[in-house]
């Protein structure tokens, strides 16, 4: 009875943020990105140009994904809108469960027969993160891509050719292509080959099914960039480009600053991701898992930070960051860092900051708002340093560790 009651509480905790977001949005603004995918599927069935399609007002959103993604969306055009919303939301929850089970597996395992309940608690906790809530609010694909990349890169044994899921993710959305670089720099050549072949096969399938739309995408829509995805200086763009765009006016100086900063982030980010993977290979058990997960999380964060536009809902990679820091829950300081990041991403701080900016506010308020508007982007960059430098140094067996904060965090009587 106690387990059943706890399960009900966990389920309510997991569903509450989604229900609140749904009720807080007008019906015509719920799961707007799902409507983009469905309109892409409808365009295929009608034989209409895929990249001329816009959703209904007030959004007027274009389809910005590769043609292969539109093909996958066709089945959702056969469902009524309410049914499609329910099915899509359930699939997002399923992707979140897969993500949590891969990312927090060592922590979950510590709870023994209570492991399913622990997993439920973690799923509920992750549902409250602002990027995750936005995934449900907009009906985004970010959690699907996250689950695919984690499964491909972190599964101890894969029942599929390693790299295949990353290749599929790239065919759906180009951003996970950063993992091709990760496969290369970490010596995972077979996975790299599988990913490239899978992405190429899916792309060629798109050309075979939709030759005109494929040509329009690869030689037209793709090159339009920000013209189709939105204003780069908007608050929701937490990529390096967005942070720079909010400081500098459009022009050569802004472009130069962005390129220099992005190059520095890419250099150190991929370098630290490679080092984290190398140190993970020297270890066994939960520490090895944490470093491998940390390496993957760094690359996921780079996919957001280095993009011309990296929306807040793209930062679902913070789930992997929090999990890598928490590990199996035995290290006090790591758990505190994980908790701090979880608390930070609970609140829509960039939007609160945006409300502090305007002619009706004092200069101090405006300055504070401008600084806090970049909170999530800055936290993502800080997480790259935290995982790639601090965590690696803390777990590297070749480094002498004399730190009292490494004492175990006990989980009641469940600790072995």
Folded structure, characterized:
This protein has 416 residues and is an all-alpha fold. The chain folds into two domains: 1-224, no CATH class; 225-411, no CATH class. It has 21 helices and no strands. The chain has helices spanning 2-24, 32-46, 67-77, 81-103, 105-109, 115-127, 130-138, 142-154, 164-172, 178-185, 189-209, 211-224, 226-229, 240-245, 252-280, 286-305, 318-326, 332-344, 349-354, 363-372, 375-395. Helix 1 (2-24) packs across helix 7, helix 8 (142-154) runs antiparallel to helix 16 and helix 17 runs antiparallel to helix 18. The longest helix has 29 residues, at 252-280. It is globular and about 65 Å long. The two termini are 26 Å apart. Residues 412-416 have low confidence and may be disordered.
User: Which series of helices and strands comes N to C?
Assistant: HHHHHHHHHHHHHHHHHHHHH
How many E strands?
Answer: 0
**Approximate helicity band:** 55-70%
* Separate helix tally: 21
The count of domains is 2
**Unreliable runs:** 412-416
- CA(first)-CA(last) distance: 26 Å
Mean pLDDT: 90
The class by helix and strand makeup works out as mainly alpha
Shape: globular
Fraction of residues in β-strands = under 5%
Compute the gyration radius: what is it? 22 Å
The major beta sheet can be summarized as:
none
């Amino acid at each position: 009875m106690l387990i059943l009651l706890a399960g009900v509480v966990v389920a309510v905790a997991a569903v509450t943020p989604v229900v609140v977001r749904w009720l807080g949005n007008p019906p015509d603004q719920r799961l707007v990105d799902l409507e983009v995918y469905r309109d892409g599927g409808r365009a295929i069935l009608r034989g209409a140009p895929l990249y001329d399609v816009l959703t209904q007002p007030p959004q007027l959103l274009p389809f910005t994904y590769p043609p292969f993604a539109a093909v996958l969306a066709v089945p959702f055009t056969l469902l009524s809108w309410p049914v499609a919303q329910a099915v899509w939301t359930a699939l997002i929850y399923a992707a979140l469960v897969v993500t949590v089970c891969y990312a927090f597996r060592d922590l979950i395992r510590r709870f023994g027969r209570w492991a399913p309940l622990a997993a439920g608690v973690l799923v509920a906790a992750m549902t409250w993160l602002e990027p995750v809530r936005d995934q449900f609010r907009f009906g985004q694909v970010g959690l699907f891509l996250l689950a695919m990349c984690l499964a491909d890169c972190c599964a101890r044994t894969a029942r599929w050719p390693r790299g295949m899921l990353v290749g599929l993710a790239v065919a759906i959305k180009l951003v996970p292509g950063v993992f091709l670089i990760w496969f290369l720099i970490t010596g995972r050549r077979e996975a790299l080959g599988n990913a490239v072949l899978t992405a190429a096969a899916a792309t060629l399938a798109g050309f075979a099914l939709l030759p005109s739309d494929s040509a329009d995408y690869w030689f037209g829509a793709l090159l339009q960039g920000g013209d189709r995805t939105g204003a780069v200086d908007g608050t929701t763009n937490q990529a390096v480009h967005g942070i720079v765009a909010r400081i500098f006016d459009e022009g050569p100086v802004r472009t130069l600053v962005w390129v220099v900063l992005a190059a520095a982030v890419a250099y150190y980010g991929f370098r630290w991701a490679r080092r984290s993977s190398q140190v993970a290979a020297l270890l066994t058990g939960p520490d090895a898992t944490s470093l491998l997960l940390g390496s993957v999380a760094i690359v996921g964060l780079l996919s957001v930070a280095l993009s011309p536009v990296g929306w807040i809902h793209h930062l679902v990679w913070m789930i992997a960051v929090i999990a890598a820091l928490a590990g199996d829950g035995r290290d006090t300081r790591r758990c505190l860092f994980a908790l701090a990041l979880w608390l930070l991403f609970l609140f829509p701080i960039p939007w609160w900051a945006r409300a502090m900016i305007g002619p009706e506010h004092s200069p101090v308020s405006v300055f504070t708002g401008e600084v806090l508007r970049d909170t999530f982007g800055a936290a993502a960059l800080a997480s790259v340093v935290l995982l790639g430098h601090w965590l690696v140094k803390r777990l590297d067996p070749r480094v002498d560790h004399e730190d009292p904060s490494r004492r175990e965090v006990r989980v009641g009587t469940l600790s072995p």
